[in-house]
Specification:
alpha/beta, TIM Barrel, Double Stranded RNA Binding Domain, 3 domains, eight-stranded parallel beta barrel, three-stranded antiparallel beta sheet, elongated
Length: 538
């Protein structure tokens, strides 16, 4: 099968997503990560539109990209001036990028009502802009904005805009479903009809084999990935998208889904097998840089993508993983997970113990007893399918294998409220680490924050700042039985991460501070135990 090239626009289109903002330095770090992933094209931004993108391209000039071509974005030149006079086109040229990509109007609605110019004048803008970039020795991609909507309204004119780009010398024609409303069967039919109309015109001067097509889709109908795959089946050789599907409104086509589908399911080489194993880490890295919680249910790379909860399922995958998995998770850098809950049984506990390196055969506790204790605790309010970290510690305690890296002696939390001032929280904590006693105090934005800061301070004295990379990703509190009012039992779930791994811990109590402490302490115990196994700490 022919190779499909991957074009990433996370740094430009992805930043148009709500609550997503990257600094120029953030963008550079992401670009380096994408290059390492084997992405073919990285769209750095629109250098003519803002200082941040101009700064990014300046910094990028000092970097060497080993796999990717850096792309600068822009638009066709303004009506009433020449292409050479347009500052946006010149900004693309001056950016130092390998590729210039410009969008132009394909839908006659936009030409008439947005640009307020004649249809023929728009064709001149497209042709002249592409020609100017080609004259300046750039590879040029032309984004046919709103192509599918334009084709539905006026197919003849939509094809004329593509002809203008081809005649100007465009290396790639990208068909855009900008509003995200096109359906897969429409993509297939429109691309087939478009190719016939385009290449049956002798004035085009190029054959179908000489024009490279790309696809750019949005997810407003939940079909961005499906439309991208359909376009590849219909002849597209370049797929645009963003990591994690970040983008305006409902987002762009998600490359973390598209790449494995193309490479593993359809046999189209994209980024290579070794790079494919980096896909989950790349997804987590970009979500961290975007300050967006990872979506566990994201296909292929999500934490739950290969998670099994039902006892029958677990029993089956222990014998044959293909029975309940569509692929081997390690191919995309993910891992199989078995979720412990009252839906599981002996098979679940045995699998999880083996997965976590816990020997449950060489002690006096039977698997049935372990299962019974898990189910009892779940009745108390624990939920182990979302708290692997706490479950590991529980299994170690029940099998007499737990070696605590610290033990609590006491803590005190105080909250101060002045009349016209916000609350102040202070925590005083005393812990034991072996024969050493540590007593520390710290402030925080709230009582849990103060506890977190005090515990970190105490442990960092002993474990040489090993907890510095650990930070909280999510903090959830749930009231388990509202009939008890403010005295109800609560469940606190903390999700933490370091540079390599996500883990979750849980606490349950009538006191929200105690429940938070349980989850927080388990999180740090889990991290330190992991580092001890890896030889990071003695």
């Amino acid at each position: 099968m022919e190779q499909v090239m991957v074009y990433d626009t996370t740094l430009r289109d992805g930043t148009q997503g709500e609550n997503i903002n990257f600094s120029a330095y953030d963008k550079l770090k992401i670009a380096i990560k994408l290059d390492d992933l084997g992405i073919h094209y990285i769209e750095g931004g629109w250098p003519g539109s803002n200082k941040r993108d101009e700064s990014f391209f300046e910094m990028a000039k000092a970097e060497t990209f080993h796999n990717a071509k850096l792309t600068a974005f822009g638009a066709t030149h303004k009506f009433g001036i020449t292409a050479a006079e347009d500052r946006h086109l010149n900004a693309i040229i001056e950016s130092g990028a390998d590729v210039g990509i410009i969008f132009g109007k394909t839908w006659d609605l936009h030409v008439k009502k947005i640009l307020n110019i004649e249809l023929a004048e728009n064709l001149t803008l497209i042709r002249g802009s592409v020609e100017y970039l080609k004259q300046n020795n750039l590879e040029v991609h032309y984004d046919a904005e709103h192509f599918f909507d334009g084709y539905k309204d006026n197919p003849e004119y939509a094809v004329e805009t593509l002809k203008a780009a081809v005649s100007g010398g465009a290396d790639v024609i990208v068909l855009c479903d900008t509003n995200g409303g096109t359906l897969p069967h429409e993509v297939e039919l429109i691309m087939a009809d478009m190719r016939k109309a385009l290449f049956n015109d002798p004035n085009v001067g190029k054959t179908a084999e000489q024009v490279c097509f790309g696809i750019h889709t949005h997810n407003d109908s939940g079909l961005a990935v499906a439309n991208s795959i359909t376009a590849v089946r219909s002849g597209a050789a370049i797929v645009q998208g963003t990591i994690n599907g970040y983008g305006e409104r409902c987002g762009n086509a998600d490359l973390t889904t598209i790449i494995p589908i193309l490479q593993l399911k359809m046999g189209h080489p994209c980024i290579g097998d070794e790079n494919l194993k980096k896909l989950r880490k790349a997804s987590l890295y970009v979500s961290e840089m975007a300050n967006m919680p990872p979506i566990h249910s994201r296909p292929f790379v999500g934490k739950s993508a290969f998670a099994h909860k039902g006892g029958i399922h677990v029993n089956a995958i222990m014998k044959e993983p293909r029975a309940y998995e569509h692929m081997e998770p390690t191919l995309v850098g993910n891992e199989r997970r078995v979720l412990v809950s009252d839906l599981g049984g002996k098979s679940t506990v045995e699998y999880k113990a083996r997965e976590m390196g816990i020997d449950i055969d060489s002690n006096d506790v039977s698997t049935s007893e372990l299962v019974a204790e898990v189910k009892r605790l779940e009745q108390e309010g624990y939920q182990f399918d979302v708290a692997d970290g706490t479950f590991k510690i529980l299994m170690e305690k029940l099998t007499n294998q737990f070696q605590p890296l610290f033990e609590l002696d006491s803590f005190r939390v105080t909250i101060e409220k002045d009349k016209d001032q916000p609350c102040h929280s202070h925590a005083l904590i005393k812990i034991g680490v072996g024969n050493v006693k540590e007593i520390t105090a710290a402030e925080g934005h709230g009582p849990v924050s103060a506890l977190d800061n005090a515990l970190r301070k105490a442990l960092n004295h002993v474990y040489a700042n090993e907890l510095d990379p650990v930070h909280l990703v999510d903090f959830k509190v749930r009231v388990l039985d509202g009939t008890e009012g403010t005295g109800a039992k609560v469940r606190v779930l903390i999700e933490s991460r370091d540079e390599e791994k996500l883990w979750s811990t849980i606490g349950v109590s009538e006191d929200i501070i105690e429940a938070s402490w349980q989850a927080l302490a388990d999180s740090f115990q889990f991290k330190l135990a992991k580092d001890k196994v890896n030889g990071v700490i003695p």
